[in-house]
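re the bet — no i am not wrong, look at it urself. input seq straight from the record:
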Amino acid sequence: MDKNTATSVFESLASGIRLDAYRLLVRTGPQGLVAGEIASALAIAPTNMSFHLKALTQAGLLSVVQEGRFQRYRANMALMQDLITYLTEECCAGHPEQCAVVCDTPLCAGADAVPTI
């Protein structure tokens, strides 16, 4: 990942609605949700939600697939993993053994680690 991509991802998540939408889609996993379900779950008007989903998709945080007249959105977990790697790749100035305590918890540590909104 490069600095421009990381900046784009952070800019797209700088909205509370977008952050909530992304976290909701992370929680739903690979099945994702259609746009109306996301809007309903977050109590956001569908037209407003569409604007935010488009921004997240353009940043690469979401993938979208057309299903008839609906669009199904899924969180791009690979991009988020790349972002975390980018942020932490120089952890402890190249001495990762010093970061063992910080890095000891896996990203997806199980049900207790699932984010809630």
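see?? The chain has one domain: 1-117. told u. also The first helix runs from residue 3 to 12. so pay up
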